Amino acid sequence: MEKYKMHILICGGTGCRASASEAIQNNLQEAIKAKGLDDEVQVVMTGCFGFCEKGPIVKILPDNTFYVEVKPEDAEELIEEHIVKGRKVMRLLYVDPENKEVISDSKHMGFYKKQIRIALRNCGFINPENLDEYIARDGYAALGKCLAEMTPQTVIDEIKESGLRGRGGGGFPTGLKWEFAAKNIADQKYVVCNADEGDPGAFMDRSILEGDPHSVLEAMAICAYTMGADKGLIYIRAEYPLAITRLKVAIKQAREYGLLGNDILGSGFNFDVEMRYGAGAFVCGEETALIHSMEGLRGEPTVKPPFPAESGYNGKPTNVNNVETFANIPVIINKGASWFNKIGSEKSKGTKVFALAGKINNVGLIEVPMGTTLREVIYEIGGGIKDGKKFKAVQTGGPSGGCLTEKHLDTPIDFDNLLAVGSMMGSGGMIVMDEDDCMVSMAKFYLEFTVEESCGKCTPCRVGNKRLHEILDKITLGNGTKEDLDLLRNLSNVIKDTSLCGLGQTSPNPVLSTLDNFYDEYLAHIVDHRCPAGQCKALMQYVIDPELCVGCTLCARNCPVDCISGERKEAHLIDTSKCIKCGACMEKCKFNAISIQ
Amino acid sequence: MAKIKLAKSKVEKLVEICKSFDNKGSELINVLHKAQETFGYLPAEVQETIARELNVSVAHVYGVVTFYSFFSMVPKGEFPISICMGTACYVRGAEKVLEEFKRQLNVPVGETTEDGKFSISCLRCVGACGLAPVVTVGERVYGRVSAGDVADIIKEYQK
């Protein structure tokens, strides 16, 4: 890396690539060539920077200038001004929305200030397709240390002492899990990386795999060393083509460097990794279901015990950890358990990555110490609610987490606190909702997901969730009764208590938490036949206020079914019998003349 | 479902795919991935051939195909349209966008227009939540789509 004077880092995460970051890369390279600076300036496509809301992001080193919302046509100016003349391109810098201050270094931005990056340490920093860059950031030092200086048991003890808990949602102590797998004697054992990130709205695992694939390979090798396995499998979603490509590159490079394969670093330890592809089944995030899927079967969970540590893949002892869990391991070995366990809360150590999304200003991927409050995450890092609307709820833990409200905002986020308030950590999805979101519809939306994703093996989950969904549907259509609410609650509790795996045991959470926190909203649907958030189509009508309408015709021109009539400069009218309630008119109206009744 | 007869070359291709995975039943999912990549979808006849080659029952193959949402038994359109229904997209209005696509193309989710040009499906999170709601057409990703943009997106592919 030292041969270049300057480096231009471009986010190559999925979000930024969707906004043409590859074209930016090409244009930058051309502009550099045109100036004859090929030998001095290097353009690197990195993993995700996290600040997706402001993507595509371009960062220039060594001066740490962080450009946001860059377009391919800005490339020439960036090179001409910043690289050649040494002047920052002011119009592409981040402006603090509160005090309008221009901030050029990301570490001073509200979004990054409170973050501590352990699992995401290399994302947006190194070229994920270059092993040397990973090594330059202490990569494979932890594996070297384990093989040369530590016994399997001392490695396990270190992980146990660190207090690391499974980041996939279970929160089970990782060191303990490794110890179980190590204790079972067998001729063949397996290490499995669960990269079947199924939570809609959570994309931390993919970002780690896309931005720092070697951290996962290194950790898998360390795990294999502790339990005496020589084979690793990465179970990854087929829907993640970029992550798959980057992993394949990483595996190939690691083999070439002798960091995977036989006699790693001359220690006599053998380990190699293969990929297995998921095919779109949420339940495969559950470890027994995942193992069945890898065996070529339907991904249905089985009763534990036996735990995979005894009898997993092909009936052999298997240790399954999630991507983010693995990404923490090398740092713990390098910096020590006592460094790691000082970060976080009493029972949840270290940091957690969250995918912050929904009605929030700064959508993105963040990593904060456990124990950070929801308020800090939503208001300080997330920059508050979009369009100045009112915060209504935050849903943590993916489709089977709970919806938390204003009163929970000061709850420090960790595994146990979230469970105590009726939600869960899950894999770290965090969806923020505002006053326009109907909580009954949200519960229905989540149930729709679980109904579709239930594997059908056990009755409470297969039938129970379907019934829950039907009742919620009935309520959103305005046909619910008060008895339905009791039924919802009873049925939810039965499903939770009697389902076989984590999916059914948690799927009623959105129903229960919205019943607890938004009971009045349910009542409004049932008693008043009204959706307070104005989202339930059956219970609403779009109307134009003749006082406010100036007759600009914009709504009529944007109506997809031509149901708005009216002469120019005269108040318009919506034909409610033809209206499909798509909301396009309301979105376009510049005079707030259209409302929902 | 109507039977179609697989061309000999297609059968040979399938046999080859199965062979590349040592005709092992445990490789079924990998075989199906490869087969779908080659043929675009997995009609009954493809499943029958795979079952024969891997020496497993057709019911087993069918069970696996229908279990995973990635596998499809119907062909996709020339321009497959997918609307992200992940939570982040949903709260930013993905449902309205979906409704609009369904209305304009006049096909339900999971089906293809009569001319074979467009098919509509829902997907769960492409990981571009900053651009929500997201629609993909083939490899192309459209961000911050509203119901009003739908006609323009369709028009791009209708020429």
From TrEMBL, chain A:
<dbReference type="InterPro" id="IPR037207">
    <property type="entry name" value="Nuop51_4Fe4S-bd_sf"/>
</dbReference>
<dbReference type="Pfam" id="PF01257">
    <property type="entry name" value="2Fe-2S_thioredx"/>
</dbReference>
<dbReference type="InterPro" id="IPR019575">
    <property type="entry name" value="Nuop51_4Fe4S-bd"/>
</dbReference>
<keyword id="KW-0479">Metal-binding</keyword>
<dbReference type="Pfam" id="PF00037">
    <property type="entry name" value="Fer4"/>
</dbReference>
<keyword id="KW-0408">Iron</keyword>
<dbReference type="InterPro" id="IPR036249">
    <property type="entry name" value="Thioredoxin-like_sf"/>
</dbReference>
<keyword id="KW-0004">4Fe-4S</keyword>
<dbReference type="Pfam" id="PF10531">
    <property type="entry name" value="SLBB"/>
</dbReference>
<dbReference type="GO" id="GO:0008137">
    <property type="term" value="F:NADH dehydrogenase (ubiquinone) activity"/>
</dbReference>
<feature type="domain" description="4Fe-4S ferredoxin-type">
    <location>
        <begin position="570"/>
        <end position="597"/>
    </location>
</feature>
<dbReference type="GO" id="GO:0010181">
    <property type="term" value="F:FMN binding"/>
</dbReference>
<dbReference type="InterPro" id="IPR017900">
    <property type="entry name" value="4Fe4S_Fe_S_CS"/>
</dbReference>
<dbReference type="InterPro" id="IPR017896">
    <property type="entry name" value="4Fe4S_Fe-S-bd"/>
</dbReference>
<dbReference type="InterPro" id="IPR037225">
    <property type="entry name" value="Nuo51_FMN-bd_sf"/>
</dbReference>
<dbReference type="InterPro" id="IPR011538">
    <property type="entry name" value="Nuo51_FMN-bd"/>
</dbReference>
<dbReference type="GO" id="GO:0046872">
    <property type="term" value="F:metal ion binding"/>
</dbReference>
<keyword id="KW-0411">Iron-sulfur</keyword>
<feature type="domain" description="4Fe-4S ferredoxin-type">
    <location>
        <begin position="540"/>
        <end position="569"/>
    </location>
</feature>
<comment type="similarity">
    <text>Belongs to the complex I 51 kDa subunit family.</text>
</comment>
<dbReference type="Pfam" id="PF10589">
    <property type="entry name" value="NADH_4Fe-4S"/>
</dbReference>
<dbReference type="InterPro" id="IPR001949">
    <property type="entry name" value="NADH-UbQ_OxRdtase_51kDa_CS"/>
</dbReference>
From TrEMBL, chain B:
<dbReference type="InterPro" id="IPR002023">
    <property type="entry name" value="NuoE-like"/>
</dbReference>
<keyword id="KW-0411">Iron-sulfur</keyword>
<keyword id="KW-0479">Metal-binding</keyword>
<dbReference type="GO" id="GO:0051537">
    <property type="term" value="F:2 iron, 2 sulfur cluster binding"/>
</dbReference>
<dbReference type="InterPro" id="IPR041921">
    <property type="entry name" value="NuoE_N"/>
</dbReference>
<keyword id="KW-0001">2Fe-2S</keyword>
<feature type="binding site">
    <location>
        <position position="84"/>
    </location>
    <ligand>
        <name>[2Fe-2S] cluster</name>
    </ligand>
</feature>
<comment type="similarity">
    <text>Belongs to the complex I 24 kDa subunit family.</text>
</comment>
<feature type="binding site">
    <location>
        <position position="129"/>
    </location>
    <ligand>
        <name>[2Fe-2S] cluster</name>
    </ligand>
</feature>
<dbReference type="InterPro" id="IPR036249">
    <property type="entry name" value="Thioredoxin-like_sf"/>
</dbReference>
<dbReference type="InterPro" id="IPR042128">
    <property type="entry name" value="NuoE_dom"/>
</dbReference>
<dbReference type="Pfam" id="PF01257">
    <property type="entry name" value="2Fe-2S_thioredx"/>
</dbReference>
<feature type="binding site">
    <location>
        <position position="125"/>
    </location>
    <ligand>
        <name>[2Fe-2S] cluster</name>
    </ligand>
</feature>
<feature type="binding site">
    <location>
        <position position="89"/>
    </location>
    <ligand>
        <name>[2Fe-2S] cluster</name>
    </ligand>
</feature>
<protein>
    <submittedName>
        <fullName>NAD(P)H-dependent oxidoreductase subunit E</fullName>
    </submittedName>
</protein>
<dbReference type="InterPro" id="IPR028431">
    <property type="entry name" value="NADP_DH_HndA-like"/>
</dbReference>
<dbReference type="GO" id="GO:0016491">
    <property type="term" value="F:oxidoreductase activity"/>
</dbReference>
<keyword id="KW-0408">Iron</keyword>
<dbReference type="GO" id="GO:0046872">
    <property type="term" value="F:metal ion binding"/>
</dbReference>
